[in-house]
Specification:
single chain, mainly alpha, 73% helix, globular, LPLAT_7/PORCN-like, transmembrane helix, transferase, endoplasmic reticulum, membrane
Length: 420
Amino acid sequence: MEFGQTEAFLLLCRYAFLLVGGFILAGAAMGYYALLVFVSAFCSLAVIHSADWQQVHKWAFFFQMTWQTLCHLWLHYKEYYLQETACPRFSITLSALMLMTQKVTSLALDIHERKVRVWLPDAEKDALRWHLPQALPFCTYLLSFPTLLGGPLCSFNRFQTWIKYSRRTSSSQCSLWAATQKGLGALMVSLLKNIVRGYICSQADLTDCIHFGCIYVMWTSALFLRLSYYSNWMVDESLFLAAGLGLKLDCDHCVGTADGVLMDTDIWTLETTNTIAVFTRTWNKSTAQWLRRLIFQRSKSHPLMATFAFSAWWHGLHPGQVFGFLCWAVMVEADYRFHRFFSSVAKSQPQKLVYQSLTWCHTQLVVAYIIIAVEMRSFSILWWLSFSYNSFFPVVYVISLLFLAKKRVISSTDPHLHTS
């Protein structure tokens, strides 16, 4: 066997290893519910293979979101109509389907933008000639075990590049070092989460608090949920990096930096920012970029509201999610205008310090309000949030949005502004 053929064979073996690992992980984590994920992956590939490249993103989006929505509606039926607790394996399956939607729509957009070619050059007009060596990378991209249950979203082209070159010894050393760093970070965050859960907050007190005590309970409960997200993301990223994905290939200085992929975890920015807009862009970075590309940049009217409305749909359309994401959209719009106006008012250094401190506190409490609504999902939590002192903080932003919007309209129609 020649050297080139050996390399090609080893590459196919690596794809097959990642794909088989995905099948095993799906079966172990989801049981027979894994069939829902397999149907999603293989039917999406059939749609991508059969559709015209100019329309492939629309057909792939339609099929994937229809399939995912049907699965979410089954969960609604179980929880709200039958009053049954959801099976943990089914919840894991829904999470995997959401990640599958990201990869399918990202791949379809790449094909639509001619960044990825589905067919071999000599078979572009012959849809039947889609051989196994060509189909295997697409299947592996959708079902590989490092990205099946988590991990940042990456493009198909970059996934192929990493699979091809991450076998190098230097890259393997860097991958293990970066994965170890992420794993240790996840352990530390998990310990902090347990401390918060055991000694600082108790989510059982959410509906038992009164008056200003509800603000403390809401913030600490949201802090626990944020730490849970951080630890889960870091574990996902650790597996992602250990598989040789995400690192720079020229590993002269073994640092855990990503080349062309956004790692989802940026705890420092999330916990120190005083603007909701920055928090929104930083929270789950790769998903934020995916939503921007899929919805925001393609919406002709009200792109911000369309993006958050789609996010509520993608998450499952539970009552708290619909309320929370629409509230989030309003808060981001108000945040832009609020900071544009008040940052120009604060001139001196003490004024800026007070402004940044107050806006940081307000951002923390508004974010906590949204997280509790989205994560708890139920009508009872929405009722509690709406009639507790916690509603004061988003209401401040709603009032400022109305006031600043009116002020902007008056200013734009002031004849004195248009005189030379």
